[in-house]
């Protein structure tokens, strides 16, 4: 059961923590409460991807060599340990999430015609699109079978729903990018589906693997949703050349993606300014001067400050929910992961 005495009820229903946020920690520190479990997960994940087909196994070994942060399995295991004791079901949950997530990345690289992933050649760059698509399908099937073989129906439903939402969110963003009519409500719907859905599935799956308490599971699901929204806003801020840029300036602008800082700046500006900026955004080709002009407009119109405030509010709501759980190293690491999300530099 959740301990509601550890938070003061706030007007939004999530509560407000009276203590200040903890010092942001590095990912290596956040992994410590589940370090042994993460090591066990690697073996579990490798076995889940094994195939007697030589070509499949060759591609699999290449994927396993990539140095990803493995944040999603970390979220699953920390959530499980916050809610109870890690079980075999927790490892299956982490493997299921990572299999489906990896499959979506492989398919994304095909769609985007990307030739790099995490500093290495993408699957489609090395083995062409047909093999990349089939490999992504193989990973999806392995995830589905992993859940079905052990009758993990709740886990399968949770993660499958996240994949559905990710697809819908991506398609909605493509549709709206063509029309350039995204308002704040639509923006949050898109990032909730595209990004927050999988992070929410991670935290919910961790809880599902150790408890049947629906209140606990729903609380952890909402933690993931808040965390995912804050994560995406942080990512969007990088596009406007904030001091700690983590991606090339203006990528979203060049792809006509309407993100929160820009949406707010346009909404709060005079009609003439809106028209001037939208004319730049609609251009098929934008040079660095165009990108800098839009970024300066967003900064001056308060878009950066507004997005940061929203990000910090969502992070605080996630912390408030986590403080309802009994104190533990795993819970503190999850709170630390919230802080890491909103202060990360890439």
Question: Which descriptors would you attach to this protein?
Answer:
single chain; 346 residues; mainly alpha; Farnesyl Diphosphate Synthase; two-stranded antiparallel ribbon; 15 helices
Description of the molecule:
With 346 residues, the protein is mainly α. It has one domain (22-340): Farnesyl Diphosphate Synthase. It has 15 helices and 2 strands. It has helices spanning 27-30, 35-48, 54-64, 71-83, 88-112, 123-149, 153-179, 184-208, 214-238, 251-254, 260-267, 271-282, 288-300, 303-322, 329-343, and strands at residues 116-117, 120-121. A hairpin with a 2-residue loop joins strand 1 (116-117) and strand 2 (120-121). The protein starts with 26 loop residues before the first helix and ends with a helix. The relative contact order is 0.14.
